[in-house]
Amino acid sequence: MRDILFTDLDGTLLDHYTYRPDPALPALRRLRQAGVLVLPATAKTLAEVVQIGAELGLTDGAIVENGAAIALPPGFPDPVPGGELEVVTVLGLPYEMVRGMLAEAAAEVGARVRGYGDMTEAEVAAETGLSPAEAVRARSRQWSETFVVTDGDPVAVGAALERRGLRAVLGARFLTAMGDHDKGEAARLVLDRLRRDGRAVRSWAVGDAANDAELLAAVDHPMLVRAGHGDWVDIDLPGLVRLDGVGPAGWALIPELMGR
């Protein structure tokens, strides 16, 4: 039997405001020591996840840019020590294509949008509270574009994106334009890979926002922490466990639920 936990990052393992995981660190260590595979499933870029993984010991793999790609270490699920994450599956569209269709959608409905590709690293840092180095990694998008609507109706922009086969997903802070993929689809592919050799797998996932719904629906045991505003978002799934803590404070309760 192998246990795997998919975790959102911003607002879940990482605090919504400080981007720190501190209350969850003992729980994360317990899971890692117990042999649980812990994979971020996030809107963040691969560059961001690699850096965060190096800091927190998250080296089992990752789902990045809202399910646009899956990155795994050599030898997954029993990675070679020191092996770097490699993109093994791409579900998203090329970044410049997404940017182009976002511009077309905004023009169609008379709106103005501003994506990370329109901002400098300093501007992204100012908008997000990230450090300059973190802002560089946040801008290194490959399959999706994070953006804000500076003038016009965000709903209309989202509808125009859908007419082009894209989605507009609301995260903890910003909208993201992306192809027709999600974290749940990517998680199922990872689970299929784990089961290839016939091993039994128990799957868990934790998030904080509406864009985690597909991820939570893809696993055996879905969990939800309180969002930054202090309450749980409105997600209704069979067996959903609502952890009584905001972000990483709720995450800290996971080992007990997993029997670890």
* Series of H and E elements: EHEHEEEHEHHEHEEHEHEEHH
Distance between the termini: 14 Å
Level-1 CATH class name of the largest domain? Alpha Beta
For the biggest sheet, the summary is:
5 strands, parallel
What is the total tally of β strands?
Answer: 12
- Cα radius of gyration in angstroms: 18 Å
The secondary structure category is alpha/beta
Strands in their spatial order, largest beta sheet: 2-1-10-11-12
Helix content: 25-40%
Q: Indicate the overall shape.
A: globular
SS strand fraction: 15-25%
Give the full name of the CATH homologous superfamily of the largest domain.
HAD superfamily/HAD-like
Level-2 CATH architecture of the largest domain: 3-Layer(aba) Sandwich
What is the number of helical segments per DSSP (H or I, 4+ residues)?
10
Multimer state: single chain
Structure description:
With 260 residues, this protein is α/β, with parallel strands linked by helices. Helix content is 32%, strand content 23%. It has helices spanning 25-33, 46-56, 95-108, 121-128, 132-138, 154-162, 183-194, 213-217, 248-251, 254-258, and strands at residues 2-7, 37-40, 62-64, 69-72, 86-90, 112-115, 144-151, 167-170, 175-178, 201-207, 221-226, 241-246. The two termini are 14 Å apart. The mean pLDDT is 95.
